[in-house]
Amino acid sequence: MNTPEWLKPGIYGAAIGAVFVGVVGFTWGGWVTGGTANDRAMAMSRDNVVASMVPVCLDMASSDPARAVKMETIRDASTYQRRDALMAAGWATMPGTDAPDRDIAQACLAALEL
After folding, report:
1. CA-based torsion, 33, 38, 41, 46: positive or negative
2. Per-residue pLDDT tens for 18-56?
3. At what angle do helices 34-63 and 102-112 cross, to 10 degrees?
4. pTM above 0.85, yes or no
5. How many whole angstroms separate alpha carbon 72 and alpha carbon 104?
6. How far is CA 82 from CA 8, 44, 93, in A?
7. CA 90 to each of CA 31, 54, 100: distance values in angstroms, whole numbers, following the listed order
8. What is the dihedral of CA 76, 78, 83, 89, to 10 degrees?
9. How confident is the model at residue 6 (pLDDT cuts 50, 70, 90)?
10. What is the 3-state secondary structure (H, E, C) of 62-99?
């Protein structure tokens, strides 16, 4: 069987082009693997859940009869301990859960604008 003269360079060109397109696609084209896409989706959903729970935290803070005392405790805490103080106040414990959520506490702390 006779193969055309251009077949061998054509196959090499196609292989090199495929590798080039793959490298460019994954580095600059924004392509990601399934695992990376899943990780990003989980992070986005977590961020959305936290954002949706901040109003609940703020409502719990505004309706707490001991709000003034707890706010003073949170204000008196050092900057890096304020999240723990807010969690101790109970405002980051969402209804139906037993423990406070650190991410919700951090977002609620930012929304309280101390």
Report:
1. negative
2. 999 999 999 999 999 999 999 999 999 999 999 999 999
3. 50
4. no
5. 20
6. 68, 25, 15
7. 42, 13, 7
8. -30
9. confident
10. HHCCCHHHHHHHHHHCCHHHHHHHHHHHCCCCCCCCCC
